[in-house]
Amino acid sequence: MLLPIALPDTKPLIAALAFASSAGAFLLVAWPYLKRDKLEKRMRQVARERERIRLRERAILQDRHKDTMLRGEQPKKLYELIVERFNMTAKAEDGDMAQMLRMAGYRGRGPMIRFLAARILTPIAMTLAALFYMFVVMAGKTNLGVQLAATVGAGTLGYYLPLILLKNRTIKRQTSIRRAWPDALDLMLICVESGMSIEGAFRKVADEVGSQSLELADELNLTTAELSYFQDRRKALDNLGLRTGLTGVKAVVTSLIQAERYGTPIGNALRVLAQENRDMRMAEAEKRAAALPPKLTVPMILFFLPVLFAVIITPAVIQIMTHH
Asked: Helix, strand, coil % (nearest 5) of the chain?
């Protein structure tokens, strides 16, 4: 006869396993909410650092270019009197000269008056300086013909010097815009495809590209203001092409005007133009790289070959001299 075996009470064990399973399920569901997202925190830190660097670089560029643009400043009375005295007031209203100043980044009546006054004062100052140097400092050391020729040359240089500096400023400004324009087009394409308007895209691109090219950011900000102000939006876009004077910018402006006129998608045109501008920038880099060997020929002949010949021939010359 078998005796009954007393089984242990398994209810506490079952209860413990059920509690553990419930706790595990709860932790499994709640773990994404309880765990801190380090990636998101890191991305926020990176975004803040990027914004800080962008603002710092833009501040540096603004400090570097703060003396180049004096918009809205009224010209000094002395400059206005000089321009009126020499009957150059009509030139102050010349559209071609105003366009030249706008391409260099100077807008308004103040820069125009200062430029015209500089074209009057600079030759006078350089002529007086040349007269003092030739007839006082170099008195008796040179003949009269050389003195007069130097004086006339100094006056002529003083007349054309403001125009030369203005063209130099225009070239530097266009170079800065040309280098940053393909990247600006890529950003503009992203903004437009995300649903932004042209004004919003220009404003956003101006904020982002300011650390790379303050000139381009300034032009885009001005275009944004003109798009909001002018009744004819095509006029604002045309002004952007005229102020920059660049073929790539004018092509984009033409595409934007046609897209707005006929209702075609702007994103497709911007994508094609962005690719073309990148190809143009690459072709320009390849062109400069291909032009480098001919430019190095003369320096190599003048500086490298004499040293090479000296290194090769000097030991033989020393041996010959020692044998003799």
From this structure: 80, 0, 20
Tokens of 208: 């982002």
Range of the domain at 142: 77-173
Check if the beta carbon of residue 192 is closer than 8 Å to that of residue 266. Answer: yes
Q: How many domains does the chain have?
A: 2
Residue 284: C-alpha distances to residues 215, 278, 280 (Å): 21, 10, 6
Virtual torsion, Cα 267, 273, 279, 280, nearest 10 deg = -150
pTM higher than 0.85: no
Q: What are the tokens at 91?
A: 């030139």
Report in angstroms the alpha-carbon separations of 311 from 205, 276, 282, 305: 57, 50, 40, 10
Type of residue at 160: Y
pLDDT of 55-79, one tens digit each?
665 665 555 555 444 444 555 677 7
Half-sphere exposure of 49 (CA within 13 A, CB side): 6
Does residue 298 lie in a domain region?
no
Contact 110, 75 (CB under 8 A): yes
Nearest-CA neighbor of 101 among 223, 243, 216? 243
Q: Residue 21: CA atoms inside 13 Å, Cβ hemisphere, count?
A: 6
Q: Could you count the other beta carbons within 10 Å of the beta carbon of residue 162?
A: 19
Model confidence pLDDT, tens digit, residues 135-190: 887 777 778 888 888 888 888 888 899 899 999 999 999 888 888 888 888 888 88
Residue 260 resides in a domain: yes
186 and 265: one domain?
yes
Distances (CA, A) of 78 to 72, 90, 109, 118: 18, 17, 14, 12
Taking a C-beta distance cutoff of 8 angstroms, is the pair 202, 187 a contact? no
Candidates 49, 54, 15, 19; CA nearest to 187 is 54
Does a structural domain hold residue 65? no
